[in-house]
Amino acid sequence: MKFLISPAKTLDLTSQPPTEQHSIPAFLDKSQTLITTIKPYTPADIAKLMKLSDKLSTLNVERYQEWQQEHTKDNSRPAVFTFMGDVYTGLDAYSLSHEDILYAQDNLRILSGLYGILKPLDLMQAYRLEMGIKLENPKGANLYQFWKDIIADEINHELDKDELLINLASNEYFKSVDVKQLKNDVISPVFLDEKNGQYKVISFYAKKARGLMARYLIEKRGQNYDALLNFDYSGYQYNKEKSTYNAPVFSRPESAQ
Q: How many CB atoms lie within 10 A of CB 145?
């Protein structure tokens, strides 16, 4: 099975990655098109487009100006060791074994507003370009129109016959995948946490749980639907009563949080 996660707004640009191995993103020419599109934007334009502070808008305008299509170890970092945030706290890539990282390289994919889709060891440069923003570009009025066919074609190319696609990405990012074009089953796990006696999706916990499940699938070398249902990290358990085939539910009591 292949599994998808979202990127993160916060980036680690200083720590030393635990491996020298790396790969090159598949769609750098498309990324360059987006950089060329957004380069003329001023900090005020970026602040309005992305609802950012003046400081963050200025920082990201500088990043667009510095971005280079040629990605090397001198100007870029492996994606899985660069993105931070709740999903990546759950994934905890730095503590994965070398063999785990190689397995993730074959099976884990990161959706991205700038790069489209990334392998864990694909080199990336600092950027902020969330998939949901309405950036007019040569292919339409937003990034969904820019990436939808490209990402779906790439996923279809990578998936073997009958191989499952596990969607651990947020709704904002998974909307960039044209599901109608996919040839394989898509499974989108749901994570429920108890609060005041009620089970619900709690964003902070759900994001971390997506990263935890990605880690689980990497460590257990999950290859089928039953392996997915055995997910039990951090107190989660498969909840058969609330589940459907395409949306298996994993719930966790308040005492295990």
A: 14
Neighbours of 225 (CB within 10 A): 14
Query: How many other β-carbons are positioned within 10 Å of the β-carbon of residue 214?
Result: 28
Bridge partners (DSSP) of residue 140 are 137
Instruction: Compute the distance between CA of residue 203 and CA of residue 205 in angstroms, rounded to an integer.
Output: 6
On whether the CB atoms of residues 105 and 121 are closer than 8 A, the answer is yes
* Rounded distance between C-alpha atoms, residue 220 and residue 172, angstroms: 28
pTM score, whole prediction: 0.96
Joined tokens for residue 162: 């009958």
Residue holding tokens 């491996």? 19
Q: pLDDT tens for residues 100-126? A: 999 999 999 999 999 999 999 999 999
Read off the tokens for 14.
């200083």
Q: Is the dihedral of CA 156, 21, 87, 220 positive or negative?
A: positive
